[in-house]
Design a protein that fits this description.
- There is one protein chain.
- The chain is built from four helices and five strands.
- With about 160 residues, it is an alpha+beta fold.
- Strands 2-1-5-4-3 form a five-stranded antiparallel β-sheet.
- It is globular.
Length: about 160
């Protein structure tokens, strides 16, 4: 399986789709996207705006994976004005995001993290891994998972 440093999670299969987002397998909404400026938040934002034609881009969510990792998380860039611009709700990313906010339009997902963050090897991942992590939030509360992983990370850091 090919690994990439970024994936787009589409809000819908295509602009003409009438299929409800909840009926679409998450894996079919994920596309690889090679982020050239990985590792520099400002440059990542500018690249996403330029290459995807987004009028604006910013962090819209973070979420941990489905395996219990607490040293890095998935960092999500999106279009903060997506709702105003009439973009469809991105069900998969909205459900997983730790803020509990609805996210509109397509989203770009990378691995990032507090402090130590992901290792170089962990910075690339498969679409299958991302789909499993997004699916995890169908049955797990995103805010609860985020709080538990942050607490675990903090306790480890403090030697507890």
């Amino acid at each position: 399986m090919a690994k990439h440093n970024c994936y787009l999670v589409r809000a819908t299969l295509n602009s003409n789709s009438t299929t409800p987002a909840s009926a679409i397998p998450i894996a079919s909404l994920i596309e690889p996207f090679r982020l050239q400026d990985y590792g520099n938040e400002y440059a990542e934002i500018e690249e996403l705006k330029s290459r995807l034609g987004w009028s604006s881009a910013a962090e819209v969510a973070k979420f941990y994976d489905h395996k219990g990792t607490d040293t890095w998380y998935h960092y999500v860039y999106g279009q903060p004005n997506g709702k105003k611009e009439g973009k469809p709700k991105n069900e998969a990313v909205s459900r997983a995001g730790h803020h509990g906010n609805d996210i509109y339009g397509d989203a770009a997902v990378i691995r990032s993290g507090p402090g130590e963050g992901p290792s170089e090897e962990q910075q690339v991942f498969t679409a299958s891994w991302l789909a499993k992590s997004l699916d995890f939030y169908k049955t797990n509360d995103a805010r609860d998972v985020f709080a538990k992983r942050e607490r675990s990370r903090f306790q480890r850091k403090m030697g507890m």
